[in-house]
Design brief:
By secondary structure, the protein is α/β, with parallel strands linked by helices. It is built from 17 helices and 15 strands. Strands 4-7-10-3-11 form a 5-stranded parallel beta sheet, sandwiched between helices. It has a 4-stranded mixed beta sheet with strand order 12-13-14-15.
Length: about 425
């Protein structure tokens, strides 16, 4: 249409249909028109939508300033509810975690710590399998309500090789933080099986060490603090992929491993340093896992770790092998104790479950034979309880189920108490 035609004919708003005589002004486009009333209404709608989505996003993101940091004693008491024994390790972890997040809070409040630079309190946990290394890290993250991820160090490879890049652990942490980068930067990463990335000998190898020293080198910057571009969906980086920048300066790294053979390294050092009369009086047994309590940086160096990697794990603590009493406590006392879990499952069927003390002792004895610590407790309990749980829903008038030592050791039938006060008797298979 020509300008003259617009002037000759009365035009109407393409949105509301009002004529030019009904409004103050009309904006013309390519064969379309919009009046000032529709423009004003559109601005109001856009403003309301913008405020709504901004409010939703603000509610979805946790306020870092409202984060309540527990004191070391409070952290220790919370750990006691879930982890049996390992008193020294729990105290050391509580202090390390408290100092780590206290440093973060101080920077958030004051902007910086110009007078003193406080380094990260990354932790190295030593101890046999099944002593609670992973459980300690998981429980801390749950208590603090921060993102948490477990990464297997044996799956990591040096950049450029087939396998998971060391920065892939940050991608998993970002996913667990619902892709909130700020929340991920306050998280905890537990690197399991970290002892497997040590060099196999003191001398440097001529060939490339894809899963050993090279991985240690790749982890250095992450442990110390760096800004890493992370693929939000995981996988390898490629040039056209969007990346999310994650600053690892405030991410707490807890590394754990069984460190088989490290006790022999410590024993040799102690034996060489003990001479004369003291040597005759001191008996150093290489297989004694208690020697891990005396670990020194030089021992880790001989075990196959580079000095830079050792230096970025300033807090080192060892976990004791579990005693029989500790394993009995693990079965019965924590919040997630196996006995409590089975009792709850039986209660849902309207049946009271009693597991006698001698039956629990039999579970512990079997677990000691398997030499996998507390990990064996669950599988042994499942083996004993599965046939009973299979039959319980089909039995009538059962008031109580009694698990005896024979059920654990030989798969014998449990004893049942019936609702009609009949005497305890065994149920035929």
């Amino acid at each position: 249409m020509s300008r003259h035609r617009y002037q000759a004919e009365e035009i109407h708003c393409s949105f509301c249909g009002r004529s030019s005589s009904e409004v103050t002004s009309m904006i013309a486009g390519l064969d379309v028109f919009i009046c000032d009333i529709c423009i004003q209404n559109s601005v109001e709608i856009l403003r309301k939508n913008t405020d709504y989505y901004a409010k939703q996003q603000q509610q979805a993101q946790p306020e870092i300033s409202n984060f309540r940091l527990l004191k070391p004693s409070e952290l220790k008491r919370a750990l006691d509810l879930h982890v049996i024994g390992q008193e020294e390790a729990k105290q050391m972890l509580s202090v390390a975690v408290y100092n780590h997040y206290k440093r973060i809070q101080s920077v958030d409040l004051m902007g910086s710590l110009d007078d003193v630079e406080i380094e990260k309190s990354n932790v190295l946990l030593l101890g046999p399998t099944g002593t609670g290394k992973t459980l300690l890290a998981q429980t801390l993250a749950r208590i603090l309500d921060v993102p948490f991820v477990i990464a297997d160090a044996t799956t990591l490879t040096e950049a450029g090789y087939v396998g998971d890049d060391v920065e892939s652990v940050l991608a998993h942490l970002l996913q667990n933080a619902n892709f909130d980068a700020e929340r991920a930067e306050r998280g905890i990463i537990y690197l399991d099986e970290v002892d497997k990335i040590g060099r196999k000998s003191d001398s440097a190898s001529i060939t490339r060490d894809v899963s050993g020293e090279g991985v240690q080198q790749g982890l250095l910057k992450l442990l110390e603090g760096t800004v890493a571009g992370v693929p939000p969906r995981g996988g390898r980086k490629h040039p056209e992929q969007p990346l999310v920048n994650i600053n690892t300066k405030n991410i707490l790294f807890i590394c754990g491993g069984a460190f088989d053979g490290l006790e022999k390294v410590i024993a040799r050092r102690l034996r060489n340093s003990t001479i004369g009369f003291a040597a005759e009086q001191t008996q150093i047994v290489e297989e004694d896992m208690a020697l891990l309590q005396d670990v020194q940086p030089d021992d880790l160096l001989r075990y196959g770790f580079i000095p830079e990697f050792i230096g970025r794990l300033p807090i080192v603590t060892a976990l004791h092998p579990l005693s029989d009493e500790a394993m009995l406590d693990i079965l019965s006392n924590p919040k997630n104790a196996l006995v409590k879990q089975y009792q709850k499952l039986f209660m849902m069927e309207g049946v009271e479950l009693e597991i006698r003390h001698d039956a629990l002792l039999a579970v512990v004895e079997k677990a000691k034979i398997r030499k996998t610590g507390a990990r064996a407790l669950r599988s042994i309990m499942e083996e004993a309880m599965l046939p009973v749980m299979y039959r319980i829903p089909d039995l009538k008038n059962i008031r109580k189920c009694v698990i005896t030592r024979g059920v654990v050791e030989h798969g014998s039938d449990p004893e049942f108490v019936y609702a009609l006060d009949e005497p305890i008797r065994k149920v035929a298979s």
